[in-house]
Amino acid sequence: MLTHFNFVIQSYYMTTHAQAEENLKIIRSLMERGTLYRTISVPSAFMIGSFSLLGGFIQMRKLIFNWENDYLLSFLLLWIIVFVLIGVFNFYWLVIRNRGEIAHYPRIKKAITCMLPSGLAGLLFTWSSFQSGALLSMISVWMIFYGLGLLSTMVFAPRSILFLGWSFLLSGFVTFILKQTLEPFSSSLIMITFGFYHLIYAFFTRGRN
Length: 209
Description:
The chain is mainly alpha-helical. 83% of the residues lie in helices and 0% in strands.
């Protein structure tokens, strides 16, 4: 009887110890992931914010493209170029900082996989908005699906990225509801959201790496 009791006590402490170790591993993993995604996302956010401000300035001043004849097409071409440049510079940053190899590739791949469905849906609604000539609908689609993409990483992303995701999602809702009122301010909306949101995020997050 006593032997059985000692066995139960030992099993209990072994189980408790194993659970404690597992909890520590989980906490350590979460802390490492938070640091990792802040390290990657801060320079990315700075680049997205900077390019978005530049794109918004070009749109506001009606530079480079033939804005007078086809404003919507010029708008779409401008932001396709901006988004491609953002993607190229982000890829360049990730490769160069790791001496020719993509830094933290498995986790970046996981994040991209999570965001891919919302990105594809955003492309579909972008094309639909372009076909119907709805400029503000297109901008609100970008905000909403970009926000959903960020929120889809909530399992492993730090809280700051989730806050950024909610900011875009709510801004997209407001833009869509007030699209008729906000129509003259399309360039300002993009500069505020994709520009300043990212720069503010980068500024307040950079010190936590």
